[in-house]
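Notes from hallway chat w/ T.B., transcribed later so I don't forget. T.B. wanted the structure written out for a chain they're using in a teaching module, and asked if we could keep both sequence and structure tokens in one place. Agreed to drop them here.
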Amino acid sequence: MCKPRNSCSLSVPRSYYGIGFESLNRRTNMAPLSIRIGLAGLAVMGQNLALNIAEKGFPISVYNRTTSKVDETVERAKLEGNLPVYGYHDPEAFVHSIRKPRVIIMLVKAGAPVDQTIKTLSAFMEKGDCIIDGGNEWYENTERREKAMTELGFLYLGMGVSGGEEGARNGPSLMPGGSFEAFKNIEDILLKVAAQVPDSGPCVTYIGKGGSGNFVKMIHNGIEYGDMQLIAEAYDVLKSVGKLSNEELQSVFSEWNRGELLSFLIEITADIFGIKDDKGDGYLVDKVLDKTGMKGTGKWTVQQAAELSVAAPTIEASLDARFLSGLKEERVEAAKVFKSGGFGDIVTDQPVDKQQLIDDVRKALYAAKICSYAQGMNLIRAKSIEKGWDLKLGELARIWKGGCIIRAIFLDRIKQAYDRNPNLANLLVDPEFAKEIIDRQSAWRRVVCLAINSGISTPGMSASLAYFDTYRRDRLPANLVQAQRDYFGAHTYERVDIEGSYHTEWFKLAKQSRI
């Protein structure tokens, strides 16, 4: 089989990628004129999404700057079921293989690589053609690019894609935002490619204008940070205080995944506890370095929370936990310093009732999750108001029910809450969620107190509890903080009994009172 310089063509049935390298120098040997869509960027996510599209009955052209990735993708297509995937080594041939109006999805690293890919491909595109950025891009970059593309006569979408490698291959959650015309051009493809949830349909919807699709995906990832941190804390308390073995942890999380906590993250956590180390004795999870990586969307979420003045302490705590996990060498030295002060092995004052602890941790995890999702939804709403996007929070909960990393049965409840009241100020005050938190708050407090007394950090659960306790109080000590601000900076204050803005000469009054 010979490999041409420009493209790989194949004919295929249904299933996965296909291969078949033919001479591509002549237009007649390129992909058939029925190709409506192309994909540029063939790392694993890009390959899997291309295969998914082809498997759903849509022939697709693929391109990558590193040509070996093109050959690899086409080979996979053949091995996984002879799918209609056509590979191109040359960007011009790639673009011209797609019929007008062309739709090209990019899955490349955010930032400069996106701009470079747009520059490369747009040189061969025509007015009315569309580019879709499927990466985790900063939403303002998407808005800048959409404006530039519009001026050139092109359509542009920023589309969040969630679900990881498996989701991309078998059905992700898709969050397209930007040109509505562009969305309509590809809607039929997205409806088939997205994850399918029997009771609520395909996990895709038109999010809104501008960079809304990328923004919603960013907040989705922020919620994901919070979710993962809360699960890690539940694990830590059960393992370090309850002394549960990996076998017991697997059993507990498997049981939780049959109830209110049923979700992708709980499911994979149970799986992780059951994997033996193939390079030594014991379980693999115990050999994994306790140092969490990140790619930036969690940080962006926290930055947006600050910009929008929206409290998101659970998500912020999860980001801080990742920062601290990165200080592995410092933590090892700190552990030596403080061991002499009694901070060594985890010891509890009283014997632990394992079953009671498991039940309490389950309730605490669920209650804390409500707070994390409430914070994420409030961030989305605040941005939607600022930008005029008119985002539908219940619809976002619906498309997150399948395909994505935070998919969970819990999202049904969130959709129902926003269906009942689209203007719901906070998930915490939805009648059903409020009742659930009230029913679980005693267990939640017991877990946080037990962790504190045992020297176990639970920043996510603690931050969630503080968020709940702050939000539910009609009077906070903020009156003192505002008085302090007026004292040293003449920032003024409002009164609870008289309307208006006031300033007091606190220093003079205090000085007089000391005479």
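Follow-up for T.B.: The CA atoms of residues 378 and 425 lie 8 Å apart. Might be a good example for the class.
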